[in-house]
Structures are given as structure tokens and as C-alpha cells.
Amino acid sequence: MIKIRPVAAPSLLRFIKLEQVCTRPCHHAVAPNEYTDVPKYPPIVDMSRRAKKKRLKTAWHDKITKLPTVEQKLMELNLPKYYGYWSGHLIDVCPKLLGLNFIQYATRTHVVNGLPEEYYSDVKNEAERLTTAVTDKVEHLIHLNYNCPLSRRSFGPGRASERHSTQNFLLGLHRLMASTVDSTVQHIKESVVDMQPRVEAFWILGGLPPDEMLRKTRKNYEPSKELENDLIDRTMQGVSTPRLGVRVTDGLPEVVSRDDPLATSAFVPDNKLDPRAFGFWPGEKKEHSQLWLHSREFITKFVEEYVTELTYPLVQQSAITDGQRWNFSVYQLNTCTLHSDLATNNPHNNILWLGEEQVLFENGVKGLNAEVLTALISMYLKKGIERDNPTPHLGSYKHLADHPASEEYREMFQSHLHDLFSGRGRHFMKPEMYLWEKIYKKDFNTRFFEARRRFFENHYKQKDPGQRRLDEYSPIYIPKAKRKDRRVKYKPMLDSEELYKYH
Amino acid sequence: MRVTELRFAQNIGSHFKALWLIQGKKRVSDTGAAAILRAKGVPVVHPQEVLSPAYDRPFEKVDLLPRLEPVKELEEKQTLCHVFTNKFSPVMGVSQVQLITNSVVRSGLPETVLERAVENTAEEDEKVKEAILHAYLLDSKQIKLTRVLDVINRPGWIYKREYGIPVARRHKTLTYQLLLLLDHLVPGAAERQLVEDTITTANFNHSDRLIQTKHRAAFILSSPNPLPQLLDNEEVKSLEEETMPDIYPLSPFINCRAIGNYSLEDSYGVGSGHLHPHTIFIHHNQSRMPHSEEHFNGMTLLYAFSHAAAYAKQIAKIENGNLEKPVVVQVVHMHKQHFHMGVFQLNTLNLTGLSKNIFWTQPWEPLFGKCCFQAAKPVLEGYNPKVFSLLKGLHAQC
């Protein structure tokens, strides 16, 4: 640091004694001792393209992990894509031919035939006792729904009416179960029941082979020539609409601690949508009349942590039924980070215990199968356990409601997020290359004299619409009448950390 | 300057194409040559007997779309019938419906209900509030909602089109959750059965006209034991002296034109002889209610009557209109946060006779004032615990 006494005039310099000796001019703090005994080398960073890309990805994943609320994480996940992700859709009502292998790979699930007996051993006696109490009521319910003529809205031809009659049966059955089981357990009393909830899950699946177009692009671009056949990540969207969902506050205890691996082949899917995540679902009932049950099971909930690992396993019970035939299953989610090489090299994998198909009653209510009822009741009775740190990757304020930012910003952020998830398209669609442009500008350029202004033409302002981010938009103008400060002309821009930020 | 002729050149192309189409379909005209040749003894053969197509061109008829069954249109009948559906709105409100259903109205729910309508505990209130939040706000279903218009305060202003939970879904979720809560509070509720989305139709003769009620209920809660009679036979007899409201010059069928295409089929939602109606839940699923509270209350009475009567026609014994054992039915009519509850006793199906039916009701109660997100926080304001306690009172009847 240079300490010089301020001088009155340059000519008086030689008559003024400087108090401190001015050392050599240096512009930063001088270390007391520049040398250490052991050399401290900076980390050797792999400067290959592959490694650089991986570092960028990891940095993004870390950013998401560090965000304190669910909404912010969801927004950050969506930020890279203004026009949304081009995802593979796994919808529970649309079975894919020979898709079981792929779905198992996509969700990294190992299937075990038969329900885990020891898991329900503690509630088995209670369940059996309650079954005897509930049998004749269930018989009345079945009689009402399947034997009596009910005058109901007609839902047209096909499976719609079948689904609605099953829905009616399930509503009645849940009521019955809830009131029977109620005397013994507290969590059913406090549960929330959803009728046909919207359940969507989004995750990034790695280890998929690149498609032709990508390989050609890589081959033709010098820096990425060697990466031609590198496996890629694709985003997956799972959509499910169970008929009835029962939710409680505490998650179910794990069935087994993280277990053995599974991997199979993979193929490349299609389509696009925006993602959504959901909460805990200890017991669910779905409706089906087809027999590709396995695939259905895997469309489960993947919570906040898509790119961050789970710290404890999440368990979900479900039943697939059409009233008469029942299939119970228990799913344990051990991992939901399936991006990059974690799709195949993951130490953990998810497990599905799938029971056999059982029939509740034959035609005409004769022969009510009590085993089915016992299994169902034991699912209801299974209590959740309190985890001491249920959301380790969230801040103390878990939801946006408690975020320290101003009210106005919170409201704007939430409505923006809801708009994203509503599935409505952007106001202006993604720019497309018209066929005439492909022919006369791209493939056979006969219009070389025209100014290059389009997104696929090279010019100084060229922007790839696929790379447009959610926060790349012109700032929104505030009219003078609505301004709080005369000089603040624009609204702040979207930012995942501070919700809205002035740049 | 040379004046060019007007050419209408834009039509040349289409004119040319049209000519090709027309002249392409050559009609072979009879020149008379064949007749002359035959007359001269020269054999004349039709070209198609000699020539054959170069290759076989079979045309396969494929049904690409499944053939839909044609909608059975109801034939027009001679006698016209007044059909009262869910969309009917009584112009004169409760008075008009009284005349239609031959009922007397008491303001205030019956004693048996009010004494069981106990105050809610704090825990119950919390659960109801949670149920409301889940049904109205925290459901993630996003469907395009109907447009919001505020013609009075902001005429011409176009509101942003919202995506969210439709009204019908909100009602269903809330009602089901409330029923689950009520079941815990009342013993023996497990015996009752719930049926969703029913249609109930019943025909009656009113003065010289035919009327039909065709109503949809969101839920019908039925119980193995019928509800006890609220007014015993002497009190029912005393109702005969009560006067009915007069809506002259309007007729009781105002706002309901008689139509010719109807079908005379009676059906009650729950067709089991062992189950008797306990409570009917009706949801008014329009996002805007085009009428006022009076009309809404009138509809409640009509719904109660239609369900009680349809059930009675199926099960109960009727002697020249009067029921041997009156049928009691409770009804809860909902629209967004308004709950209108009533208890109806059906004494007679004779809608012009002396004997009268009776309906106990009270003005509608809002369940809450405002339920929305405020600064990303779910907020419920103006919660009214009275609604749940009245529901408890209704549910406890057996």
C-alpha cells in the first residue's frame, strides 16, 4: 500500500518529508512470505471436451441441489429450455410394445415376484382380525356395485363406463377401509384422499445411444469428432392418473436396504412436455383391465431430487384393480439420479415387489376372497416412520411461501411456474424452418443474395431457438402510470436464486 | 399511351383445369351409325364385349372409422311433458317449486338435526380447512377454466385465461373428503353406501299436465335403514290446512316449456331394495351462477322432491297418491362455497291434492370467504364452522 501525504503543490515536494517510505508500486497485498515448503499445485484439470462438458453438467446439478425451495429447483430445471424439453413420454395408459425392458431400464427397477412377507408381518394379525369384521360390508358393496341396477350417467361406449363403475366401487371401498381401520391407526384419519390426481414425474436418463442426426452433427464438427458415439442423456416424462391416492405425512419405512443391480437394453423414445414433480404416496389404487402391470408400476413419484441422490429410500404401495381382479405391489425407490453413466453404474437400484393377480369375488358375489382384503387392509395399516431429516436438500423454508424475497416476486414466480406446468404452448411458437427455406436456402442455396436473418443462417445475431433459456426474454416494460420509481422502467428478470433480479 | 385490355387473367388457370375436367368425361352420343349398320346386316358389337381392362382393379371397401351407433332420437309424442332438468331455474324461486311439488316450507332445519349439530372441535376445524385447501388450491390438475368476465366493474377487460381445477372437481374432492371426516364422527356410518353420478327420473301428473323430473346427483348416500318420519300422521293431516303461495299470473311451469320428445321411464339412482336414501348431494357445477339465492334454494327443494318421489314410486306403497309411510330425504346443494341444506318429507305424490309435503330449510351458508394463493402462500379466509356442524347434524340422523 502506498501512503503518500497529500502535497499542496508539486513544486513543494522536495521540502516535504514523506512519513512513510513508498515501496515499489504493486497493486495487490504483498504476502508476508510468498514461498511455502511444500508446493501447492492447482488441481490438474482434464481439459478435454468430454471432461469440460461433464464439469458444466455437474456444476448445474450442484446449483439445483443448493437451491432452498421446491419451486426454485423446478424452475432451475426448466431454465435451460425456453420451449420445453423434448422428452420421452411414459404414460400409464399407453403401453409400448415389448416396452417392459425399456421401462425397467429407464427407472432402474428390479422386479421381484411376490410381495415382501416380512414387511407386513407386524400388521398381519391386525389385518386378519379386521378382515373378518369387514367381510359382510364388502359383500354389500360388491352387491350394490356389480349386481344392482344403478341409474348412472352414461359415459358412452367402451371402457369409460367400466372405469367409472370401478371408480365408484373404489370410492366406497376406501370409505369402508378408512372407517374400519380408523380405530387402530391415526395416520389414516389424517390422510388426504385424492380422486384421480395428476401424477407426473420428470427425470434425466443417461446411457442412451445417440441418434443419427446427432452423430452426423458430431462427426462434421471438428472439436466433437471423437465424441461421435458417446452415449447421451434424454429427459423422460412419466404420467400417471391413479383412480384414488391416499397421502399421509410420514413416508413408509424401507423394505430392504439398498440392494442388487439390474440393467437391460435401451431404445430411443419421442415427444415433448414440461416436467412436474409430486409428493409422498403411501397407498394408491389404480384401475386397469389390461395385463401389462409391470410397466404401470414404474410410473411412480420421483421427488425434488432429480439430479441429487436420495438419502433414504421412498416406498410406495399400490393396487391395480378393475374391481374383481387385484394386483398388489410395493415399490421401493432407492435412486432417481439416472443421468449420464449413473443409468448403468449406479450402486443402487429400485425394487418392485409384484404380487400375483388375485380375484376378489367370482361373478355374483359368491366366494369372497378374504386374502385380498387382508392384503389391502395390511397396506392401510402399515404406518409411516418419521425421518429426522426428511428433506436434506431443501432449505429451512421448504416452499416458496416462506421465501425471504418480496411478496410481489413470490407471487410472480409462482404464477410463472404454474403457467409452465399448465401445458399451454408459448405465445409465439418455436421458430421453424419452412420447407421452401429448407429447399432454397439450406439444401440448394439459390438465394445467396438475401440478407441472412433467420435462426439457421450464420450472421452476427444468430441464436439457436433450442438453446434459448427461460430467462432470455426482453425485459417487461412498466408504463409510467404503474411505476413505483420513475426511473425503474423495466421489471426484473427471472432468476432461480433470487426469484427476480435486476441485471 | 396504349390502353391494355382487361383480362381477368387470374381465372385462366382454373378455367383451363375446369375445361379438362369437363371434357375429360366424354359422353358417347348415339350417332345413329349402329342402327344403320344393323339394318344393313353388319354385325355391331358393344366395345366392352371385346375390350377388357389391362389389369384387375378391385376396390376394397374398408371401414376406417368404427361405425357409431346412431343416437336414438326420441319420437315426438302427442302429450307434451314438462321436463325439469338440472338446468331449470324457477323464476319465482321457492314459491314456484312449492306449487310444483305441493310442499310447505319451514324456515329452519328440524329439531332433530339442530340438536345433533354440535360445535366443532379445533381438530375438526383444522381438518375441514385442510380439506378445503386441498380441494380448491393444492390440487395440481390444470385444465382450461371458463373465461372470467366482470361486466360491471371492468367492462371490456379481457382477463388472463386461467388453467386450474375445474369447479366440478373441486366440489367432488371436497364432498368426498368431508364425507370421510363425517364418517369418523358418526358410528355406524360404514353401513351406508355411496353412489357417484346418478340420474334419477320420475313422472307425475300435475293438474292436467304431465311433468317429469330428470336430475343428476353428484353423490347419493343411502343407508340400510330409512330415515324416521319427522312429522307423524296427525301433523301431516294438519298440513292440509296450510295455504300455498300464489304466483298469479305466472304458472308453476314457467321457464319450463313442455316438450314432445321425452321417454316415460322411471329410474332412481340406487336400484336396490335394501338401501334407502339418506342424503343427496347436488353440485351446481357452473362457474357462474346465472341466478340468485332464491332460485338456488328453489332448486334444492325440487331435487329433494324428485329423489324422494322416484324412490317412493319404486319401493313404497302408495294409495291414491298418499304414501302409507312418508319418505324422508336430506339434501345438500353446493355451489363453490355456498351450502344449502334441507330436509324433505314426502307425504303424497298427488301434486294437486290437499295432502302436502314439507320441506325444512334455512338460508345458504358459505363455507369460507376466500381461498387463494397470496404471495405463493395458500390462504383461507372467512371460514365458517357452522356448515360442518350442520353437516354433522344431518349425517348423524339414522
UniProtKB/TrEMBL annotation, chain A:
Name of the protein in question: 28S ribosomal protein S30-like
Highest taxon of the lineage: Eukaryota
Segment forming the signal sequence: none
Entry-linked Pfam families: PDCD9
Xref: InterPro entries: Ribosomal_mL37/mL65, Ribosomal_mL65
Keyword line: Mitochondrion, Ribonucleoprotein, Ribosomal protein
A single GO molecular function term of this UniProt record: structural constituent of ribosome
Biological processes, Gene Ontology terms: translation
Cellular component, GO annotation: mitochondrial large ribosomal subunit
Automatic annotation (TrEMBL), chain B:
InterPro entries cross-referenced by the UniProt entry: mtLSU_mL37
Cellular component GO terms held in the UniProt record: mitochondrion; ribosome
Protein keywords: Ribonucleoprotein, Ribosomal protein
Protein name in UniProt: 39S ribosomal protein L37-like
Protein source organism: Homarus americanus
Gene that produces this protein: MRPL37-L
